[in-house]
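Structural prep section.
Before we set up the soaks we want a predicted structure of the protein with uridine-5'-diphosphate in place, mainly to decide which crystallisation condition to try first. Input record follows.
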Amino acid sequence: MARVLVTGGAGFIGSHLCERLLEAGNEVVCLDNFFTGRRVNVRHLLDDHSFELIRHDITEPILLEVDKIYHFACPASPVHYQYNPVKTLKTSVMGTINMLGLAKRVKARILLASTSEVYGNPLEHPQTESYWGNVNPIGIRSCYDEGKRVAETLMMDYHRQNRVDAKIVRIFNTYGPRMLFDDGRVVSNFIVQALKGDPITIYGDGSQTRSFCFVDDLVSGIIAMMETPDFTGPVNLGNPLEMTVLDLARLVLDLTKSNSEIVHKELPQDDPTRRQPNISLAQEKLSWVPKMAPQDGLVKTIAEFRSRMAEEEA
Ligand code: NAD
Ligand code: UDP
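Run finished without errors. Recording the tokens verbatim:
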């Protein structure tokens, strides 16, 4: 049995990861400062003797005895990472240095949750891992994009200089149960708006594309990467099925049977026009492909949003 640390473990992806790691028989230490994570996301795990929850900010060092580190702590949605951009950078830079220092000391394997945002507004399509990206270093998304790019650099330098067993996954847009209602991301916004009968807010004309991966599929890819020896990555993890934001809006309206009208709002600065992962490397090295069709994943997500909204209203 391995002792596994999940930073950001009370967040959206982190909580699903903690759950799956416990199911597989690991001891899990979940570390979170609860900026966007919530205790309720891991409430059902608190009685498990193999689970431990620690409130800690990763910009401060911490000493723990662990075998593996899944490093996920970092606000991920534009509204959250732009709320305090300096803190976002500190989390990516100082937080990753602290986690790499820990990995080095206790000889733990460490996996960084990087992002498709390292490709910026990509000039290559679909994006392969060898593409270096087109990122604005001084824009409003830079605290997140450049923060993750530095985090990747730190992973590679600790790997080369200190032989830290490092791994990098570049995660593309992911959705599923437990996303925050107000995180401003497109899937959560559209579902909440549709369920409340509020207008569906499309930024720009809705022709920009994204490729959405269901969280269970993503977690399988993340664990496969951690368990694959001698492969540092970076490796793309995402669903290559590309759709426009307008198509997503229509699909959500259809699945919720909502009468919400569609309204258009201004496109945010530096909003990438197209995004689609090339996942050949993940297929080859991890034998991983996402399985969930968007309709099925959205139906599960909508059901969980519905029951959580009813719970919060009660
Ligand atoms: P999330 O906001 O739900 O989770 C992030 C977690 O990190 C939260 O629980 C938050 O409280 C915690 N956190 C933030 N700063 C911290 C700090 N300084 N110290 C300790 N804990 C801190 O977001 P998510 O969607 O679950 O994303 C998790 C990771 O995956 C992030 O690193 C994100 O960059 C990456 N990622 C997510 C997506 C996606 O589509 N969801 C895409 C690409 C990459
Ligand atoms: N978007 C939108 N309406 C919303 C929220 C987002 O049209 O209410 C658009 C946004 O401009 C972007 C896409 O949906 O083009 C995905 O946005 P999100 O913030 O979910 O992810 P990211 O831009 O980081 O990929």
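Observations: The chain has a mean pLDDT of 96.
Flagged for discussion at group meeting.
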